[in-house]
Amino acid sequence: MDTASGNKLGLYQELNEITKAYLAGCMDCDGCFQIKLKRWKGYKHHHARVSLWQTSALIPLLLAYHFGGVVKKHIRKGPARDVYSWDVTYTKAVALCRLLLPYLYLKHRQAEILLELQATMAVNNYGRNKLPESTWQLRQKLHSEIALLNKKGK
């Protein structure tokens, strides 16, 4: 099951406070906030990524409806239950962080880091020009910090 959806209508604005708090709880429990380092046409760049894995398709589909992204079903072998994943990147991931930030408890700092990353991108669109070293260093620092927060077995 692949479901791609775009948020052309600003559907996340329809969410009431209770739903926002519930989704934040789901993200605190089963969500992941990351900074990915990607190579594209010989250049490295950072981007925000938010994902969620659950055994029910309900929340992944709800997130895809409101924020876009992709929902996939992962079929497990043996007695393990199948799981559904939802993935969103770039500005849609940041929109989710901005909306759910007041309600996040365990992953509050990770969402803040993604917002800080986005702020470094909003300053200037460098395209093929060289990114200032200070901006690159800040992005690398944010990348390291979120990786440390996400490390398992702390």
Task: Please render the helix and strand layout as text.
Blueprint: E1 3-5, H1 17-30, E2 31-40, E3 43-54, H2 58-67, E4 69-74, E5 83-89, H3 90-100, H4 108-122, H5 133-150
Antiparallel strand pairs: 1-4, 2-3, 3-5, 4-5
Helix pairs in contact: 3-4, 4-5
Order of helices and strands: EHEEHEEHHH
DSSP strand count: 5
Mean pLDDT across all residues, rounded?
86
Q: What CATH architecture label applies?
A: Roll
Counting DSSP H or I runs of 4 or more residues, the number of helices is 5
Major sheet description: 5 strands, antiparallel
* CATH homology group: Homing endonucleases
Q: What is the CATH class?
A: Alpha Beta
Helix % is: 40-55%
CATH topology: Endonuclease I-creI
- So what's the overall shape? globular
Beta percentage is 15-25%
Estimated structural class: alpha+beta
| N→C terminal distance | 34 Å
Strand order of the largest sheet: 1-4-5-3-2
- Unreliable segments (pLDDT under 50, ≥5 consecutive)? 1-9
CA-atom Rg in angstroms: 16 Å
Tally the structural domains.
Answer: 1
